[in-house]
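Illustration: Short-subunit dehydrogenase.
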Amino acid sequence: MTDLSATAAEGVRPLAVVTGASSGIGYELARLFADDGYDLVVAADTPLAEAVQTFESLGAKVDAVQVDLATEEGVTALHERIGGRPVDALAANAGQGLGHAFLDQDFDDILAVVNTNVTGTLRLVWLVGREMRDRGRGQILFTGSIAGLMPGTFQAVYNGSKAFVDSFSFALRNELKDSGVSVTVLMPGPTDTEFFERADLMDTMVGQGKKMDAAKVAEIGYKAMKRGDGDVVAGMGNKLQAAMAAITPESALAEMHRKQAEPGSGKN
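Result:
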């Protein structure tokens, strides 16, 4: 766990940066930070005014920026909003999904997923992580996914992007193991957020199936970050699925995912 005593000694509240904070897991993470005495810099590609009111009601000073983190300009605008202030925690949560068969997807939509989940995330972590390393303290929380543990038939780009995030987090954690900066990856399964609607997955079995509460998922990830854990899978059912993925052939996993994510699979 990162020692925040230095921040307290400076007479300022710790600062957390949370992306994708307008709803879902990101909103719940930001709420947890605010309730825990952090000030916030929050970002999302949708309006943040309502969320900011909630965070401020918990005592946080909040700076908000509505930007597209798939773009260099969006990440730069967020970093500029931080304004050189020491960041004690970064929750790199912003993500985008995409359903349907790869060859049927619009390539601009494909790029948006890759640039949000991978390129934008890397750019932000590179900027903030270097500053954390220079100070010798900080905590980074990635929102990965158990989707990154299996081939994502009819979600191939999304699952591939989360496989990158999951893997990258472990590598970065090892690189920073003696730096005072901890790295944690939260790997949820299906969660009750706007993700499935935005990814056009509502007619699939996974879109129609049971999902975990976003607040519970965020709490699991938040506690793991505070402990300095390397990773955490949210939910017992998802833990079992992750364990199965480790011993099941990739071809079988791809077929299992097909049954969950194929368009029309959620219709009776």
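Reading the tokens back as a structure: The chain has a mean pLDDT of 92.
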